[in-house]
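SAMPLE LOG
Freezer: B-3
Tube label: C17
Construct: single chain, 85 aa
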Amino acid sequence: MGDFFQAFVKDTGKAIGKNLIKRHNTIIEFLKTLGIDENHLLEETEKIEHTISENTLQCFTNFIEFLKANKDVKKRLSEYISSKK
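STRUCTURE (predicted):
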């Protein structure tokens, strides 16, 4: 294989890997925000990772960013979730 092809494949692989890690971390953060139990978090994340669309993933990201920008809402959501347990 040529050097160009190897570099292309390596760079493409890195980009795909970064995207998969970002996807995984977004889903974990979203599920944590919803109060998913730590004992089930990884299993649930893995299930979702294989079926979630890019559009839905972007909605998760938007929701997470909204909560980060609105700490009072995040706190109220956490309190509400805690009250339901």
